[in-house]
Queue: 2 jobs
Job 1
Amino acid sequence: EVQLVQSGAEVKKPGESLTISCKGSGYSFSNYWIGWVRQMPGKGLEWMGIIYFGDSETRYSPSFQGQVTISADKSISTAFLHWSSLKASDTAIYYCVRHDPDYRGWCFDLWGRGTLVTVSS
Amino acid sequence: QSVLTQPPSMSAAPGQKVTISCSGSSSNIGNNAVSWYQQLPGTAPKLLIYENNKRPSGIPDRFSGSKSDTSATLGIAGLQTGDEADYYCGTWDTSLSAVVFGGGTKVTVL
């Protein structure tokens, strides 16, 4: 089955670091981009950034540049989203998403189930 | 405030049609392909429409998309109770160098 499997929910304190993961299966990971989308409680979707597994090219939304780090490990078909110092405002569901470069324009044809990150003192 | 503007909510009776608008500018919708996503309550979004008007396999033809100038539209015909969800448009914004989404439209089946 083609799917993105995300790591489990996290509860952290402000100032702590965190890395969440997204593992792809059932398709050739190297041919696709994997991105991250944030959804704050009761709010809409926000694109954070994306990485291409073929050459690790990474692009960030200006809103998230410098706030998070996106990386990937091709050997285990897994993408990561990292915070070095969490804030309460980072509390949200984070979805990993897949983009097929054969599609015209940027769209996300596969979504993970989401990872809930709660940051509270 | 989202870069793409959608109505916050829409409603219609079962069997009716709803049309959701997504308004942008020349830096996004005007020059880039639009996609639409459905988010059922408590679940991850799902791709409904890509490249303005194409449906992924498995998406019924009750769902349709179109684009004109700097606006896009999602149509849902033969509305069903299972269509109650939030719907989002998305595209690339050349000025921002980022994917942007609309604020979402909550569809209620009366």
Job 2
Amino acid sequence: SQKIEQNSEALNIQEGKTATLTCNYTNYSPAYLQWYRQDPGRGPVFLLLIRENEKEKRKERLKVTFDTTLKQSLFHITASQPADSATYLCALDEGNTGFQKLVFGTGTRLLVSP
Amino acid sequence: DTGVSQDPRHKITKRGQNVTFRCDPISEHNRLYWYRQTLGQGPEFLTYFQNEAQLEKSRLLSDRFSAERPKGSFSTLEIQRTEQGDSAMYLCASSSKDGRQPQHFGDGTRLSIL
């Protein structure tokens, strides 16, 4: 069956450290993968998109990798800050639909302590 | 604010009642999506519009659910004869015609069934 797995346990780190979140998928062949941030009671906010032919993408303190052999994406936040505390969702395009039909993981909650 | 707007933000109703939610997408976006999100889960795709045409509906969308986008701008999602299991956050997203552009989400309508 098709699955997208993110660590359901919250990730607790100290301010200034690098947070690394994992997204694994099975039985999908996505052309690209996206990461979103979601705060309580709010909708997801787009952060980064990485295509299948890109190994790594960066935006300010954020870095995403995409390994289509391992079927895994890693999301890194460097020099983390308490304001980075949120739930981070990975999403991939189910594909073969003619439009962007996103399938989301369950999200990983990140807590950054001062 | 030129983001995706959803109304109402919260809706509390008794079981068996009908409810209708509205979504105003980003004005230049011709693609519109509805998702449902329950606690601890990622958003689940419900339906997709390109302009005024509803091009795909998820199996999650029972006969009690109907969505419209009459003029290719705002959209409504109606749930008839609500059930306890309909309690969730209903999210709307929009994107431009380029299939690789990310989706932009509203802050959702939280539905609670008494």
